[in-house]
Amino acid sequence: MSFFTDLAHQYIDGAWRTGSGSWDIIDFNPYNGEKLAAITVASVDEVDEAYLAAERAQPAWAASSAYRRRDVLERALRITQDREDEITEAIIDELGGTRLKAAYEVHLAQEFLREAMQTALRPEGSILPSPVEGKENRVYRLPVGVVGVISPFNFPFLVTIKSVAPALALGNAVVIKPNQNTPVVGGGLIAKIFEDAGLPAGLLNVLVTDIAEIGDALIEHRVPKVISFAGSDKVGRHVAAVAASHFKRAVLELSGNSALVVLDDADIDYAVDAAVFSRFVYQGQVCMAANRILVDRSVEAEFTEKFVAKVRSLVTGDPADSRTHIGPVINTFQADALTALVEQALAEGATALVRGSTRGNLVEPTVLSGLPADSPVLTQEIFGPVVLLIPFDGEEEAVRIANDSQYGLSGAVHTGNVERGVRFAKRVETGMIHINDSTVQDEPQVAFGGEKLSGIGRLNGDSAVEAFTTQKWISVQHGRTQFPF
C-alpha cells in the first residue's frame, strides 16, 4: 500500500504536505473494505496557499514557449505509459473498477495527453479590419490564469486530465480538488506524474478536502478565473451559482439520464451488445450510461429475451479478476440507494425481469420493465447497475420519451438506415448522441458536454481552448485619429 500512502498528501507549491484540517478522509478499497490511506484534509489556509502558489508560477509559464509546455506534456504521457500497470492497479483498488474499465480509462487519458500536446500549439490570434483609417485590430488569445478543477470519483484519472492537461498546455496553472472517494487516482497520482515530468513547482496543486471543512473557498477565492466541475447536477447547480456570483466562468459536466433507442430496423444482436455495455460498464456509474433502453414494440420481445439473457451472463465480483464484468459500487451509501430505488420501482408496479442481489458494495444487475409513465424513477439519474426497458410505438413516441427528461448528456440510436438515425438523433435534446454505438463515448478532439441539467460549456479539442483561454483586443493606430473635440 506504499503507492497510496506515498501519494495520499496535499501537494502545494511543489511540496508534499499533511493537511492542517480538523479531520481525516479515509481512503477505502470499495470491494474488500481495505484501508488504503488516511489523509488529513486541507484547510482554508491551504486553499489560499495553493491558489497563491499557482498565481505566482503562472505568468512565467504563460510566457514560456508553447513548445516547452508541449515537452512537459510529452514527458507526462511517457510516464503514464511507463507506469500503466501501476495506474491500472490503482484504479482497480481505489475505484473498484474492473480491469476492462481501468484499461479504458488509462488508454483514453493517454489520448487526451497527446491531444493536449497539440493544444499547446493551437491558440491563434487574428488581425481584423477597422473602419477607422490607419487602425489595426489585433485579437490575442491568452490563458485565463488559474483554473480550479473539481473532479468526480467515477473516472477520476481521465476526467481530471481532460481539464488539467489542456489548461496547462495553454499556459494556465491549476488547482485540483479530487473527489474524497478517489483522492489518489484523481489527485496525488496526477501531481506525481507532472512533477516527474518536470512541471515547475506551483503550476499544479492538489487539495484533498471537503466542503464541510472549507465551505465554498475553492470557488470564491479571488485567484481562479475558471472552475471546471464534473459531478452531480445538484452540486453543479451550487458551483454554477457561486461561480456566477463571483463573475467566474464555470464549465460543468453533470448528470445524465441517457436513452439508447432501438428502432424497428435495428440489428438486434448488435443493439443488445451496445445496450448492455452502455448500461453496465463500470457498474453503471457513468454519467453517459444508458439509464433507459427504448425499444420499438415490433422488436420488443426479441430484444428483451436476448438482452435479459446477456445481462444474466454478466459476472459480478472481484474487479481484479479479468473475468469480472461488474465490480463494487463506490460505497455502502450508493449500494443502499440503489436497493431502495429498485424497491420503489417495484412498489410502483414495475416488473423485475432480472433482480440482482446486493452483497456489501457488490450490486448485481437488475432489469426493470413496466414502470408507470409518471414514475419518478424514469426521470432521475441511476448511478448503478439498474436499467429500465421502455417500449414505444413508432419514432414520434420514441423522441417524446427520450426528451422527457431534465437531462440531456448522451444517447444512442440503433437502426439499419444511418441517415434515418441521423434524422432521429437531431430531434433528441442532448449534447451528444451516437448512431449504432454505445452511449458511452469520449474523444479528445470532439466537443464534449450536455444540454439542460447535464451541464454548461464543452471540453475537448477547440472547446478546451475556448474554456481555458480568453480573448484580448489590442488596437494600434498607425496614423492619427481625428477626435470630435
Tell me what you see in this structure:
Helix 4 packs across helix 5. The strands form 7 sheets. A 7-stranded mixed sheet has the order 14-17-18-13-12-20-21, sandwiched between helices. The protein has a 6-stranded mixed sheet with strand order 9-8-7-10-11-23, sandwiched between helices. Strands 5-6-24 form a 3-stranded antiparallel sheet. It starts with a helix and ends in an 8-residue tail after the last strand. It has helices at 2-7, 44-63, 66-82, 84-95, 99-119, 156-169, 184-196, 211-214, 217-220, 233-245, 268-280, 300-312, 332-347, 394-403, 418-426, 461-468, and strands at 10-12, 15-17, 24-28, 35-40, 126-128, 135-143, 146-150, 173-177, 204-206, 226-230, 249-253, 258-262, 290-296, 351-354, 358-359, 362-363, 366-369, 386-392, 407-408, 411-414, 434-435, 451-452, 455-456, 469-477. It is globular and about 75 Å long. The mean pLDDT is 97. It is α/β, with parallel strands linked by helices. The protein has 16 helices and 24 strands.
Kindly summarize this structure in a few lines.
This protein has 16 helices and 24 strands. It is an alpha/beta fold.
